[in-house]
Amino acid sequence: MKKLLSLMLCALMALTLAGCGGSGSAGKTFTFASELDIKNLDSSDADDGMSFDALHACIDGLMGLDKDGNIVGAIAKDHTVSDDGLVHTFKLRNAKWSNGDPVTAKDFVYAWHRIVKNNGNYAYMLGTDGAAITGVDEIMEKIANKEKVADSDYDAMGVKAVDDKTLEVTTTRKIDYFEELMTFPCYYPINQKFCEKAGDQYGKSAKNILSNGAFVMDSWSPGSKATFKKNDKYWNKKAVKLDTLVMNLVQEPKVGATNFKSGKNDFTTINSELVDKYKKDKAYTTFGEGYLFYLSLNFKTKELQNLNVRTALSYAINRDDFADNVLKDGSKGATGYVPSGLSTSPDGKDFREEAGTLVSYDAAKAQEYLDKGLQELGVSKIKLRLTYGTDESPMDQMATYLQNAFSKLNGLEIEMVATTKQDRIYNKQKNGDFDICCTRWGPDYADPTTYLNLLLDGNANNYGKYSNAAYEEKMNEVTDASDAKDRWQKMIEAEKIAMDDYAFIPVFEKGAAALKNPKVKNLVQKAVGVPYTFNYVDIK
Amino acid sequence: MNKSTLKYIGKRLLISCATLLVISVVLFLMVRFLPGSPINNEKLSDAQRAIIEAKYGLDKPLIVQYVNYFKNMLTGDFGVSMNLYKDMPVSSLVGDAAKISFAYGICAVIIGSVIGILLGVFAALHRNTIWDTLATVISVIGVSIPSFVFALFILIFFAADLQLIPTMYDESQVVYSSIMPVLALSVGVIANVARFTRTEMISVLNSEYITLAKAKGLDGKTVIFKHALRNALIPVITILGPILVNLMTGTMVVEKICSVPGLGKLLINSIQASDYNVILACSFLYAVMYIFMMLIIDVSYGIIDPRIRLGKDD
Fold first, then answer.
1. What is the Cα Rg of chain A in Å?
2. ipTM over 0.95
3. Over chain A, what is the mean pLDDT?
C-alpha cells in the first residue's frame, strides 16, 4: 500500500512538473489545424492537398505565388518562350538548399527524370495531359509495356540543364499556362545528393526532406503534428514573417473549433454542422476548393441520348438550395462546367463571370422537357440508375437530394445504385455500366481545359462516351489559337456548345468553411495545386 | 509454479499460436476482399495503376501474397503503408501508435481499478446507506455514459474554458497532455470495477470464513483486506483483462477528440484508406494482445486463488 501511495505521489509530481513546461516558443507562430494528415513529402509521389501544403512550405519550384496569389518567379528569376511557344528557358536565381548547396538546373532535371522513372502519381503531368514535355509519353509507354528504358531515353527528354543556372524545357505543344503549371509540386526540384543518400526514406521524415523554401521542417509525427522553422538560407527570407509554422492534425472539426476558440490554433476548417454556430463570427470564412461535382451521363443509354431528357434532368436540380441549405459548407451551386475561381482571362476576369450562367433550376420547364422527351422516345415512363459512392462524402447527400428532385418529375423513376468510389470508377464507369453517375473533378492546373478536355472523344475520363463534332472542332481551335484573348473566347464558346448539349450536368462547386484568426494576414489560398501558401503569413 | 501449470501454459501457448495463424489467414483474406483499393487516385492510367500494384506485389495470386506477407511478418517486417503514409514502414507507424495506446490503456486501468476497488469496498462496507447509493449512482453514470462524452466534457471545461490542461496531444509535454484522454478512459473502468467489487465484496463478507475470521478476533482491517478483498478480486480480474486489451489497443473516439496519434485512430484511418498492410498489422496486434491477455488472466487465477488448479494433476 505504501509503495502504491509513493508511486501515485511520484506520478502526481511528474504531472505538476510537466505542467510547468509549457510551450513558450519565441517569435511569431502560426498554428494551422487540419482534418487531414500529411501523407508523403516526396514531391515525385505526393498527391494530396495537405502534403502539398507541407511540401510548399519547404520547397520553392520554378514559379510561385506572391502574397496576393499572383504567379511570380520563385527559383526562376526570368522565363522566356521561343517564338513557336515550344521552348521555355528559365534563368535561375542564386538560391540555396538548407544544407548550403546551390539550387541548380540539374536539380530540376533530376527531379523530373525521377518522377517518370518512379512512375509517381503525377507522372502524367509531365506528359501530354500536363506539361507535354517531349519524350515523356514515349518513356511512359515503354514502362507500361515493361520494355527497358535506356538512359538515352531520359537524355532525350525535353528538360535540359544548359548550365547551372539555365533550364531549358521543350514541349510537344504550345502551352499558355506553363508558368501556372510550374507552381505544381510535381515540378519541384530535388537535391540529387541528398535524395540518394536518404534512399527510400526520402520525404518520409523531417530529417529526410531538404528545404530551399521559406521553412525548414523541424519535426513531423504522422497522425499528430508537424512543425517548421523559418529558413535562414531562403532566397526571399525578407518576405517571411513567421518564425514557426505548426500543422496540427485535428480530425474532429468540433474539437478544432473548440481549440480555435481557446486560442490554440489560428486556422481550422469546420463542417456544415458547425457553420450555423459560427456563421456570424468574425473569424468565419469560406473559400472554393476547386472541385466540381457533376453528373456524368452515359450516352450509350438510349433514354439519355435524348437531349430533352438531359435538359429535363438539369432543370430539375435546385443547385443553390442544395449548396446553401443542405451542404452549408461554403459550396456554391454550379452555373457551368468550369468552376468559378479557377482561371482568369488575359483581361483579369474570372472564366465563370465571362462565360455566364449556363444551367439553372426550373421545375415546370423540367417537366415540360421530360414530357417532350418521353413523347419522342414513345414511352410514358423511363427508369434511370443513379450511381454514387457511399465512401466519398458528400456524394451520398448529393445522390439523395437528386433522387428526391428527379422523382418529383412525372414519368421518371430513379433507381439508386450505392457503391464504393473504387467500384464506381473502375467497374461501373469504366465498363459503361451506369446511366447517371455522381462524380467530381479536381483541376490539375488553372486553365479551363483541365475541365473542357474531359469531354473530348477518346479522353480516358470521358466514361459516358460523349462525342460531338462541333465541340471537337472548337477545342482544336482552342489548341491552335495563337492569341491568348482569342483562345479564351474559343474556350467560352466550347463550354457553351457542351452545356447546350447537356454533355455533363454540373451540380455544385465544392467549398469549405473555416475559422481564421482575424489577426492573420496574407494566408494565400488557391483552388488549384497547393491549397495553402504560408510563406507570407503575418500575425498583426 | 508446479509442473501441471507449466504444462498447461505450454499447451495454451501452442493453441494460441495455431489460433493466431488462422486469424492471420482470415484477416488477410478479409482485408483483400474489402471494397476499394489502396491505390485510389482516379487520375492514374491503367498502366500506372498496374505498375504501382506490381510494386506492392498486389498483382500476384492471393496465396503467394499471403505466404510472402507471412514470411516477412516472422522477421518483423510488416511491409509499407500503401496509401495513408505512403511507403513508410508499417512496423514503425504501428509501433509509435501502439506505444501511446498501450501507455494510456495501462494508466487508465491502473487509475480506474484503484479508484474503482476503493469505491466498491467503500460501498460494500456501507451497504444500504446514503454512501452506498451515491457510489452506485456514480458507477451507473460511469457505465452508461460513453468515455468520449467525458473526453468532450473535460475538453470543453478543463482544457478550453479553464485552460488547465492542453486541448490536444503534444509530444513535447507527453504527461501533461495525456491527462485528458487517460481520465476519460478511466471513468468506464472505475464504474465497472466499482460495481463488480461491491457485489463480490458483499457476497464474500456474508460467507462463513469471514464470520470465522471475525470470531477469531482478527481486526477489521485484516479481515477486509487480507481475507475478504483478496477473494472478492478474482471476478474483478476477469473483467479487467478484456477492458485492458480494449483500452490498450486504442479507443478511436477518445483518440479523435483528444487528437492522440494512437492505435484506434490509425486502424480506422487505415480502413478508410484501404491501406492493407496497416489494417493487417493493427488488427493482428489486437488479436495477439487479446489471446496473450486471456492466457495471463487464466494463469493469474491460480496464483491469486490456490484453490483453482490449472490443467490436470498427474
1. 26
2. no
3. 90
The conformation of residue A75, written as its DSSP 8-state character, comes to S
Cell of A51: 502534403
Beta bridge partners of A516: A267
pLDDT of A3 strictly over 70: no
What are B286-306's pLDDT values in tens digits?
899 888 888 887 777 777 666
Interface A-B, measured as beta-carbon pairs within 8 A, has a size of 140
Q: Tell me: cis bond preceding A253? Omega within 30 of 0 counts.
A: no
Among B168, B175, B182, B221, the strongest candidate for a mutation testing the A interface, having the largest count of A CBs within 10 A, is B168
Q: Among A240-244, A469-473, A490-494, B72-76, which stretch is predicted with the lowest mean pLDDT?
A: B72-76
For residue B245, the model assigns a pLDDT of 80
Mean pLDDT within B22-41: 87
Give the rounded percent of residues in chain A with a pLDDT score beyond 70: 95
Are B48 and A258 within 8 A, CB to CB? no
In sequence order, what are the beta bridge partners of A216?
A229
> Beta strand A436-441 with A225-230: parallel, antiparallel or unpaired?
unpaired
- Position B308 scores a pLDDT of 67
* d(C-alpha A338, C-alpha A447), whole Å: 9
Compute the nearest-CA separation of A332 from chain B (Å): 24
Taking chain B, what is the end-to-end CA distance rounded to the nearest angstrom? 15
Q: Tell me, what's the pLDDT at B306?
A: 66
* Partner B contacted by A221 (CB < 8 A): yes
Beta strand A504-516 with A532-533: parallel, antiparallel or unpaired?
unpaired
DSSP of A146-189: TPPPPHHHHHTSSEEEEETTEEEEEBSS--TTHHHHTTSGGG--
Question: Among partner residues B37, B167, B172, which is closest to A259 by beta-carbon distance?
Answer: B167
Count of beta carbons in the 10 Å neighbourhood of residue A496: 17
- Helical H runs in A22-100? 49-58
Distance from A18 to chain B by nearest Cα, in Å? 6
* Residue type at position B273: A
Q: Give the gap in angstroms from C-alpha B228 to the nearest C-alpha of chain A.
A: 16
